[in-house]
Amino acid sequence: MAMEANYSLFSPFFFITLFLGFFITILIMRSRSRVHKQRAQVLLAPLPPGPPRLPLIGNIHQFVGGYPHRILLQLARTHGPLICLRLGQVYQVVASSVEAVEEIIKRHDLKFADRPRDLTFTKILLYDSDGVGFVPYGGIWKQRRKIYAMEMLNSRRVKSYAAVRVDAVRKLTAEIARKAFAQTPVLNLSQMVMSTINAIVSRVAFGDKCKQQAEFLDLVQEAMSYLSNFSVADMYPSLKFLDTLTGLKSKLEGVHGKLDKVFDEIIAQRQVALAAEAACQAAEEDLIIDVLLKLKDEENREFPITSNCVKAFIMEIFLGGTETSSTVIEWAMSELIKNPKAMEKVQKEMREAMQGKTKLEESDIPKFRYLNLVIKETLRLHPPAPLLAPRVCLETCEVMGYRVPAGARVLINAFALGRDEQYWGSDAESFKPERFEGSSMDFKGFNFEFIPFGTGRRICPGMTFGLTSAEVALAHLLFHFDWKLPQSMKIEDLDMMENSGLAAPRRSPLLVLAKPIIPLTE
Question: Which pTM value belongs to this model?
Answer without folding.
Answer: 0.89
